Amino acid sequence: MKTAQEFRAGQVINLDGQAWIVLKSEFNKSGRNAAVCKMKLKNLITGASQEPVFKADDKLEPIILDRKEVTYSYFADPLYVFMDEEYNQIEVEAENLGNTLDFIVDGMPEVCAAIFYQGKAISVELPTTIVRTVDYTEPAARGDTSGKVMKLAKLANGYELQVAAFIETGEAIEIDTRTGDFKGRAKA
Predict the structure, then answer these.
(1) C-alpha–C-alpha distance, residues 76 and 94, integer Å
(2) Tens of pLDDT along 5-51?
(3) Number of Cβ atoms within 10 Å of the Cβ of 57
(4) Where are the domains of the chain?
(5) I want to staple 98 with a disulfide (CB 3.0 to 4.6 A). Which of 9, 54, 61, 131 is the partner?
(6) How many CB atoms are located within 10 Å of the residue 81 CB?
(7) What does the angle CA 2 – CA 119 – CA 11 come to, to the nearest 5 degrees?
(8) Alpha-carbon span 63 to 72, nearest angstrom
(9) Phi and psi (nearest 5°) for 5?
(10) Rg of the chain on CA atoms, in Å
(11) Does the reported pTM lie above 0.85?
């Protein structure tokens, strides 16, 4: 059993005897009230969705799923197609990918993990750190160096994130796929 706040997008929980995939998970803690976790769930069998709110320390049962290493191949609206080592095509619906969509680009070198439930691909997990090239960012403002200075950068697929002031357009950066945050310059 895991607490509600430990679940992330792409994981599957057993709720009332049915398998639900977590599409979105938001943790909120206010001053007076108990911490809560708002989730957007989709039933793996029926396709129905719901948005329950759990107390952060509510116990939920995770479902262990099959995994297979895959690489991204192409997009066929509304499916993203991945390929395994034996060149089998694995199709995953765009809405099941959640935040993973922000980092999927054509020709990406990273090996992902396709997640299966009862023989059907339901989600894809990226490695925790990926390297992407900054498509556009403003030049750094001279003299603005007090503390940790960040600026907005745009990747080729349109995803925007905050990067350090010294990052230039065309530079490769490391991104944490769990949070979507900038980690640093990519090692050469």
Answers:
(1) 10
(2) 888 887 889 998 888 988 888 888 888 888 999 999 988 878 789 99
(3) 11
(4) 2-62, 66-125, 129-185
(5) 9
(6) 14
(7) 25
(8) 25
(9) -70, -15
(10) 19
(11) no
Closest residue by Cα to residue 3 from 39, 51, 50: 39
Q: Which residues pair with 76 in a beta bridge?
A: 79
Q: Are 73 and 87 in contact (CB under 8 A)?
A: no
Q: What is the CATH number of domain 66-125?
A: 2.40.50.140
Token pair listed for 98? 């959640």
The one-letter code for the residue type at 119 is G
Q: Which residue has the tokens 């339901």?
A: 122
Four-residue CA torsion sign, 125, 5, 41, 103: negative
CB 5 within 8 A of CB 38: no
d(CA 23, CA 157): 21
Using the structure block, give the residue that is written with the tokens 């009230």.
33
CATH number of 129-185: 2.40.50.140
Question: Contact at 8 Å (CB) between 165 and 186?
Answer: no
d(CA 111, CA 159): 20
